[in-house]
Amino acid sequence: MSGTKRPGDGLGPKAGEKRWKRKKIAPEIGSSFRSTGSHEEVLLQDVKLLLGEAHEPGTAPEQFSQVELSISMLGSTGDGLSISHDGTRVYVVPFAVPGDTVVVKVVKNFPSYSMTDLIEVIKPSKNRDDDLVFCRYFGRCSGCQFQMLSGDYQLQHKQKVIAKAMQNFSNLDPSLIPPIGGVMPSPLLRGYRTKLTPHFDGPRRGGFKEGAPVPDIGFQLKGRSFVLDIEDCPIGTDAVRDGFKSQRTFVKENLHTFKRGATLLLRETTERTFSPETIDGREAIRSYRDIKTCITDSKALVTEWIGRAKFISPAGSFFQNNNSILEKFTTFVQEQLVIPKLAGQDHSESYLIDAYCGSGLFSICCGHGFNGIIGVDISSQSIESARKNATENGIHNARFITGNAEAIFANIDFPPELTSMVIDPPRKGCDELFLSQLLKLGPKRLVYISCNVHTMARDIGWIVQQGLGKDYRIDKIGGFDFFPQTHHVEGYAVLSKNS
Ligand SMILES: C[S@@+](CC[C@H](N)C(=O)[O-])C[C@H]1O[C@@H](n2cnc3c(N)ncnc32)[C@H](O)[C@@H]1O
């Protein structure tokens, strides 16, 4: 990519693609609010870090002007960041790496930073390796940000993102934050996503007429509000990629049946057939064969295996979508759930709370050996799957309830000193009602899992602060690379209640 001027061909929008994605106005530096962990808020923390606390925003560059910049930092939102020569403004440059010298076009100005399109890399960083890029849409699609970076570089960056999240969003004294652990790699760096949801826009009213041109079908163009036509996504598993191709054909052939734009569901399902093997007449390790296909009906059931655990759930319901890492991940979570005092002992006297349990991932993969389990999720469909999946996988002492996460506290009769709790909320994190009831109950061990390390930092900061650092201490923080090639990271934090 370096040294080549290719506007509209991998480095920026095509001619005419001027529409800037309409976004909520980003809160500016110094405003106070309960953090939401939004993209804008995270970006602003990085801007603040680069500019320092005391600064007067400098004059904004002219919109659509071109500027040459040196990239000094990779931000937590996955964009390269550069500071202006006078130190008063940050430029946000997609697909840029620290050490790159680039030419950018200014697209939109905010008081302290400017959003840009990358026009040209004139001197590539030693950290950039464009030969690693494996997708022809990279540089225009908003899905991946890091294909030009090695796997190790991505992991180290994500570890820094978690550290910065703790520093900027937890409100904790640094002495209360343990060193951030390394980010565990994903066995697959591409071809890992078991679910993709490409989409297309439709006419404002009246539906697609017979013979109407086929709309672009794909993912959002980076920094714009419209769809980039994508024929294939190599981040998806083979089954999902095949499904993508046939769904594109289906839409083209049946366009007139769509009243408006739509999101297509592509979700992998696995049919596993075992061939029993016997040694000396006794059944031994069973070999199996998997046939993987793509389901597109959100109500149809899909099957997924994690080690020996089998999960069946509706295709449209939530499930972690990098299967290749889930066995390693759930084994890790299981180890963290052991109450330290009980380590090495039979922990049949201990109990598990699975908050935001979905279709039962942690209750089932980590729940063997617990004396009792209770899970909660707002989705009745997921709870129905959790109940069936638990029974099918030999977990017979679990109860699952449908409701807001805090509803679980009225149903718990476990002794808190023998109770571990896994908390895996959606991106927005937990609300204070849930957290305050959690503190009141005081389970001995907490394992917080999140796909948004910023709301995770906010919530565990709150838990620790409420007890003035005396109730809960943070034992471990780190991450798993659920989403290689993207800026996302799955974070975890392990907390113990002081006795
Ligand atoms: C990140 S997913 C985790 C699901 C599950 N632990 C897993 O790993 O498969 C978050 C889950 O929280 C549920 N959820 C969202 N808001 C909730 C709320 N207010 N109370 C309870 N569950 C909620 C969603 O239905 C979803 O299943």
TrEMBL record:
Chain segments annotated as coiled-coil in the UniProt record: none
GO biological process entries: methylation; tRNA modification
Active site: C451
Disordered: annotated span: 1-23
Family the entry assigns: Belongs to the class I-like SAM-binding methyltransferase superfamily. RNA M5U methyltransferase family.
Residues binding S-adenosyl-L-methionine: Q320, Y356, D377, D424
Ranges of residues in domain TRAM: 54-120
The protein, known as: TRAM domain-containing protein
Molecular function per GO: double-stranded DNA 5'-3' DNA exonuclease activity; single-stranded DNA endodeoxyribonuclease activity; tRNA (uracil(54)-C5)-methyltransferase activity, S-adenosyl methionine-dependent
Organism: Arthrobotrys oligospora (strain ATCC 24927 / CBS 115.81 / DSM 1491) (Nematode-trapping fungus)
